[in-house]
Amino acid sequence: MANANIKYYPVGNGDNSLITLEDNTTILVDCNIRNCDNDDIYDVKADFLKSVQYDNGIPHVDVFILTHGDQDHCRGFKKHFYQGDPENYKESHKKEGLIRVDTMWFSPMIAEQHSNDDEDAYQKEAERRLALHRNKDSRKDNPGNRIKIIGYDGSTDYRDLDHLRAKPGDTVTRFNDKDQLLFSIFVHAPFKEHLEAEGDDKKNTTSIVFQARFKNYSHQDDFSALAMFGGDSDHTSWCIILEKTKKYNNMHALPWDLFLSPHHCSWSFFNDRPQEENPVPKKTSLEVLDYRRRNAKVIASSKTIVNDDDNPPHYEAKREYVKKVTESNFLNTSTHIVAKGIPQPIVFEVTPQGIIKPKQNEGSARAIGGAALGVVNSTSKYGSRSI
Amino acid sequence: MAAEVFSSNLATFSGNLENPSLQGTLNFLKNVLLDDFKLLVWSDWHVAVPIAVDVELPSLGNFDGLDIRPKEPVLLVFDKQDYPTKAPAVYSDRLDFPKDRLAHLYIAKNGRPPAFCYVRENSDDWYANKRINDLLIRISNWLRDAVTGNLTEDGSQFEPLRLEGYSGTNTYDYDMLSNIVHKKASFVSGHNWTIGLFDQAKDQVSGSFQLVEIVTPGNMDKVMEAYRKEKEKQKDDKDKRFYRYGFILWADDDQTYEKYNIDLPTNWETFKKYCETFKIPYNDLEGIISDGDTNHYAYFPVILAIRRPKNLIGFSSNIEFVNLKFCLYTDDVSEGKLINNIPISFQAHNQPLTPEKAQHISGYSSFVDGKGVVFGCGALGSKVTLHLARSGQTNFTLIDPDHLSPHNLVRHSSGGEYVGSNKAFALAEVIRKLYPTEELPLLSVPSYKEGRFEKKETFDKCRWIFDFTASDAFFNRLVLAESFKKARIFSASISDFGNLGILLKEGKSRNPRIDDLQVYLYSCSMSDEKISSWLKREREAKANNNLVVRVGVGCNSETTILSDEKISAHGAFVAAVLKREMADSIDSQAKIKLHRITEDSDYQVETDSIDVKPFDVLTAVNDSSWTIRFKDGLLDKIKKTAAKKRNRETGGSFLGAVNYKTKVIHVTDLIDAPPDSEGNQICFYRGHSGLSQKISMVIEKSGGQIGYVGEWHSHPQGPNCLSDVDMASVNRFKKELSELVTPLPVFLTVVAPVGILPYIF
Q1: What is the pLDDT of residues A112-138, one digit of tens each?
Q2: Which of A87, A325, B535, B596 could form a cystine bridge with A329, CB 3.0-4.6 A?
Q3: Domain check: are B417 and B484 in the same one?
Q4: Are B552 and B439 in the same domain?
């Protein structure tokens, strides 16, 4: 079995991460699948179809965790993921490459008001599944109908479905109806306090925040890798996380090897925006970063970070991160690996010695050209003189 | 801090390189390294290029704190003449490379740094499909594996030393030697060494040894006598064995050593230091070998036991053996001391083959323990049995009355040394030699003693019977035998001029039996053109009195024209099928397996599998010595046909074959009553319109194997026996059928109210 790995896709300002476990279980955290016809954009969808497992020819992710409903965290959900009764998944859907989401993770708090079609589609699909569970439909536990409620309820009351719920402070070890021995998720947020939050950034502050924990052997004392995901959570969220985690003696849930910088390397993780008016990072935010382990890395899933007014990504935020982890451990998805002008995913493999970049692929002395080659699909001109 | 590199001591190469492939690779490296490119002299035949390989390091620190760095200097060493057929060797260029703590490094030689063991298979074969860039990636990934602790296949076990450039092998059972070390079972009580009698490989060139037995005070006299006898034999005596004494040494204490120490001793002085590293006393050894008369031959093995912290991968304990070969002449010793720094080389260990290991290597996952009796150890039998034996199935009783003739060597599994020997004995010897250290449950006899074949207890513990005799007589004997009710019977033979391999697998409780299966196969000629063609060829061959290959007859004659590879192809097929079918987990369905070779325009192989259901078996009402065996479904069919006619009598004819030897009539098909037949409540007139043509066609298609065998008619209202009218017909039939060249019994069946009543006259 291959080691587990975490893949951060280059999707500009947006989040799109795929966790693949040793048993090939896949957990997708947010998606931002942009128009792939553009040659400068990495084809996330094509890579999904190569990375996920197939069930009778149906591509499926085991779990989809939507941290919150902003467009840059769920773009492409409606178009690329199958919605509706999984029994109605047809051959035509296979041809379209529609990916079945076996289990949705859904935070009732993040879907209180309409903001974009993809979020609406996610919420509608979640409600379809919740209704099956509420009505005790015999098909409710089939893949494609499974759902996990994360955090607390908003305007709709799901108390009767509490058995499907994980709250902040809970550790989840069962994913898509399968217990995992080497992987777990500690849920940090959203908190109840978020419900009272006000303003435009309400969605951001109510992001699901979690620590993904990896082991290579079940008898391991410590974790092989700890990856923090926080959507667009801001400094107030992290302040509460720190406080509550300490209060409930869950200090083990704070260390990290990989920290996906919230809100695409936004200053909002460090303090209120604009940065110019609040230039000093909050102590609590810096303390969160101090829980990094050896050679830990910060991932900025954002556009190329330049020192300008187009924020996020915020140059000053990067500077704060770099102060903690050094320049070489601050990785921007737009610039870290670029092949032929196209940013490539950043992948880390989990080993008992921590995270490491994957092995390089060996080539071969034998080769054939594929049908998709440009030279095959373009006209070739020959002749001793120009035509 | 820059690492100290070995290559700084190598001279720059200034000669000409005429190997164009090597030039191409070096040009590639020049483009990569630019000004850093250096071409150095490694040896007369090799050049070296130093290069730094990028290594990914894990976030939480290197496994075991290994000092491996993000840029590791290595040396690519190219064979000037044979590159790229000979893959480049890759050495660490660091003098302080943590070589003692890593598996997958070759033993360092001549003061050089260690080479990476970068592929499990042959590196030349691997490199045949790779480029130099792939090799650099492979080395980078090797180092990545080292720092993540993935270099060993199993972290809970210890990877043994990698050896390259070893001087022969030493074959002994690891468990036996490690037990001696664990128990500290010294030859002299309280010491830490023992002696083994070793034989040298027959080629006398490889310098390989094989342990014959451990010497103990108890067997010392016997061993010394054997040693003396072999020593006295003439050098050109074919049976001479080159015995010598070897020594196994271990440390007094139980200290374990994690470090590899890949600088193995090359002479007596380095040997002593090496022993001191692992606290292994060597004074006793020096005393014994300096006696001057211990060994007749100069070369002998010395095995050092080192305790590792974990069990060795692939072995049952933590003892790693370092196998050395000493070269000592009389003038190297004086007064009980070694006076010369004698040369020592190292050897690889070989584990003697065991059936369990053979089973594992063969991937024989369906292996089932049990005894098999093999009748017939000729060409096919020896090949099939040897395939099974090589897969670890050695629990056989081999039976063959025949002796191996020189012409048998063309197709038999045994070698020329067995000419004149009994075939079963020869095959057993070949199997025993595969597992020389094992006590195999293997027997061989020319035949069973009088009466034993028929005794049930003879086969009581037997799970399988294999018939490879190619003998019709034995086939009939097997059909009638009642002594192996519990065993599953397989019969394999070759037919169609050697082009058709046939394997019959009996059903549960011997139904269908091998004779049922044989007749069933012939009956398939009605619908299977290939079977029909084969049977027609067989009939033609018989008609031409050409008995080279007959149905079910093999190839034990000198005049048989049949190549070894054809027998081998059939044998491999039969063995592969047997391995599956011998397992109980496979359903007990009876089967016919065919392996057909055609070589009309091209050599081709095809296979076929036919499932056969149990036959319905009835005994003749009037003569219990006769049995009638109906293909599945036929009895139902005639019952239904009779029932359809209600009160009117009806009937039809039986197709099949009669065997006087086994007194069995096989019914394989029915022919409905011809259209000119008539039936009423008391009588049935079986007409004949078209009947003869139908029977002719059946005989034609089956090459004369299937034909008319009898008739049936119904007595809807009784009597439950043959009537007077029936008997009149019987008598008329008998008159004709008994006068045939091969008489045919009169077989008449009545479908009566009490059931089906067969009569045979």
Answers
A1: 666 899 999 999 999 999 999 999 999
A2: A325
A3: yes
A4: yes
For B725-734, write each residue's pLDDT tens digit: 888 888 888 8
Is the Cβ–Cβ distance between A319 and B26 less than 8 Å?
Answer: no
Pairing status of strand B319-327 against strand B462-467: unpaired
pLDDT at position A368 is 65
* Per-residue tokens: B687: 């007409």
The Cβ-side half-sphere exposure at B74, using a 13 Å CA radius, reads 27
Residue B155 zone, left/alpha/beta (φ > 0; ψ -120 to 50; rest):
alpha
Alpha helix (H) ranges present in A192-261? 202-205, 235-247
pLDDT digit string (tens) for B370-394? 999 999 999 999 999 999 999 999 9
Q: Given the structure tokens 């010793």, which residue do they identify?
A: B333
Do B17 and B86 lie in a common domain? yes
B693-706: average pLDDT: 90
Neighbouring-strand partners of residue A179: A174
- Domain membership of residue B163 (yes or no) is no
- Among residues B612, B637, B654, the one where a domain terminates is B612
Report the distance separating Cα B540 and Cα B548, nearest Å.
12
CB B423 within 8 Å of CB B412: yes
A-chain CB neighbours of B61 within 8 Å are 294, 353-354
Residues of A in contact with B155 (CB under 8 A): 352
Q: How many angstroms separate the most distant Cα atoms in chain B?
A: 116
Contact with chain A for residue B64, Cβ under 8 A:
no
Number of domains into which chain B is organized: 4
Residue B546 tokens, joined: 């050409």
pLDDT at position B100, please? 76
CB B410 within 8 A of CB B378: no
What's the CATH fold of domain A5-356?
Answer: Metallo-beta-lactamase; Chain A (3.60.15)
Reply yes or no on whether the pLDDT at B578 is more than 60. Answer: yes
User: How far B359 CA sits from the closest chain A CA (Å)?
Assistant: 25
**Mean predicted lDDT score pLDDT of chain B:** 88
B130 in A contact zone (CB under 8 Å): yes
Interface contact A362-B130, CB threshold 8 A = yes
Q: Quote the CA–CA distance of B487 and B465 in Å, as a whole number.
A: 6
Residue B554 pLDDT > 60, yes or no?
no
Which chain A residues contact residue B138 at CB under 8 A?
362
Q: Which domain holds residue B703?
A: 616-760
In this structure, the answer to whether residues B188 and B337 fall within a common structural domain is: yes
CA B583: distance to chain centroid?
Answer: 16
- Is residue B413 within 8 A of residue B428, CB to CB? The reply is no
Residues B584 and B437 in one domain: yes
By CA distance, what is A257's nearest residue in B? Answer: B59
Residues of A with CB under 8 A from a CB of B: 224-225, 257, 293-297, 351-357, 359-366
Mean pLDDT for A198-213 is: 74
B60 touches chain A (CB under 8 A): yes
pLDDT in tens, A269-283: 999 999 999 999 999
